[in-house]
Amino acid sequence: MKLKSLVPQSGFLLVLRFLALVLWSFPGARTLDNGLAMTPTMGWLHWERFMCNTDCQGEPDSCISEKLFMQMAELMESDGWKDVGYEYLCIDDCWMAPKRDSKGRLQADPKRFPSGIRGLADYVHSKGLKLGIYADVGNKTCAGFPGSFGHYDIDAKTFADWGVDLLKFDGCYCDSVEHLEKGYKHMSLALNRTGRSIVYSCEWPLYMWPFRKPNYTEIRQYCNHWRNFEDVYDSWQSVKSILAWTSSNQKRIVDVAGPGGWNDPDMLVIGNFGLSWDQQVTQMALWAIMAAPLLMSNDLRHISPQAKALLQNKDVIAINQDPLGKQGYRLRKEDNIEVWERPLSDLAWAVAMVNLQEIGGPRFHTISIASLGQGLACIPDCMITQLLPEKRELGFYQWTSDLKTKINPTGTVLLQLAA
User: Fold this and answer.
1) What pTM, to 2 d.p., does this model score?
2) Signal peptide: which range, if any (predicted)?
3) Domains of the chain: which residue ranges?
4) Which fold has domain 42-321?
5) Among 55, 76, 89, 383, which is least packed, fewest CB within 10 Å?
6) Which position among 92, 109, 136, 170 bears the catalytic label?
């Protein structure tokens, strides 16, 4: 007589899924001990859209001034941005006066920021938002304003006294790799010593790569998120190059990301001029898969309803903010179709299929359900919901099934697989 299995097949498969959850839940490398950025930071950052425009006389509506940030803060509160999670309003380069004050402290340009950063922070906080600011580890900022080299402690104290909630710390005009590394560490410790909760956004690995491979385990101990690659531009070529770099280096960077520390592929340029609708969908979907900080750089005063709805899509934001905190990765690339996936809480998975072909029309792609989620996403079956480009339930799929999807050129179909 043959012995029968003591565990039904479906039960055995569920045990496998449980073990997968346990494995995915192991914590990553030790993180910066400030209790912040437990999910990727969300907000607005001025640089890509407004750059270093200081001509407030000739271009009063687009220069870097307290007026611009107050207008954005008002819209973030009134137009639903804060409600879906965009809470940090971030100043980038070009806010400073050309020189420090008599006590060696940074100061805002008095004409463009007549209320000072303290006054702007009070206004931003009154809207239920948080204020981010910019400085540089070197002798000058990238635009030539005073750098923080030799002033890390006083600058950290100044930012805390002003009520700043996030610091983006750039890496221009640093004279050596040693000064770069020491400077990023020094500022991290100085911020923590202030006693104020300040998210620390680094560009440390971006400036390290030309010299040697960054130590991401160490970087994570000092930074809440970190830039790896060049600045994003308002173009498909730029977005595509960021995705290509990320997938090419995923073995080095994916596992280090998690609650408290994130890889930062740079700003969302959705709602601007350079991306088609399908390309905007691709950026939103893949930034969610990559567990990236969602820092928009656009003009909230003149954003289309379609772009606004995409950026405020609660289902996609939920993937980005998933508390399991595991960054997704590219599963495979075949014939200009890329498949990315990300493990989520409750044994769910997010899957993005990207059509990189830029000639012809929409393409159909068939994928084996058993190949997704380390082979465990749909054991014995799962409910598949398409979230982008539009939401619709695709139904229940067996582990042995195939899924056929139509993807527009340079577009993405984002799916959620749930038990």
Assistant:
1) 0.94
2) 1-31
3) 42-321, 329-418
4) TIM Barrel (3.20.20)
5) 55
6) 170
Q: How far apart are CA 296 and CA 41, in angstroms?
A: 11
Q: Say whether 170 is catalytic.
A: yes
Is pLDDT at 412 greater than 80 in this prediction?
A: yes
Given a cut of 80, is residue 126 above it in pLDDT?
yes
From the candidates 161, 231, 255, 315, which is the catalytic residue?
231
The residues, any chain, with a CB within 8 Å of residue 150's CB and separated by 6 or more, are: none
Residue 83 annotated as catalytic: no
Q: What is the pLDDT of residues 18-43, one digit of tens each?
A: 445 544 554 456 778 899 999 999 99
What is the structure's pLDDT at 29? Answer: 60
**C-alpha span between 66 and 95 (Å, rounded):** 9
